[in-house]
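Quick note —
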Amino acid sequence: MQLIVATRNAHKTHEIQQILGPTFTVSDLSAHPEIPDIHETGKSYEENAILKAVGASRHLPGPIVADDSGLEVDALGGAPGIFSARYAGKNATDKQNVDKLLGELARTGAEETKRSARFRCVIALAQQGELLGTFEGIVEGTIVERARGLHGFGYDPIFVPPGFEETFAELPAELKNTISHRAKAIAGLTAKLAAP
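Predicted structure written out below.
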């Protein structure tokens, strides 16, 4: 089955392909420069995912999925949340976002025990301008004091899921992709796609 992800983030597209496996062929908007960027003006992950999926589905045939996800740190009042990708500024790198988050956490003086956080992901499915469903996945965890690991992207190097000592960036992709927020949201998506 072919799925188009309404993103130009190659890391995200690759991870979704890895999670879905060989029964799906996943592509993204990189091959469609004619489609304008869809601004994430929503006030929630769900609103942003719907904006992207429905917007792209008006231009392309077949099922379109869009993902909006972020990190919510309790000691920072849930920040960076929906602003995770641009926490340190509009075109911030992953490292700049991570450095800002660790700096903000250090300023709060949050002890190791108070560094609880969660990754949240919402995936929207749309076709021909119509929303077909949304699917949410959450994974709880804690934020470590310095970045560790070379895998993954975004905030993966500072996030440790429950039951592990390694960050998402230290875990093999095959393992991360069974326990992550995105994997949980995609489980809902694949159940919907498999339904008659």
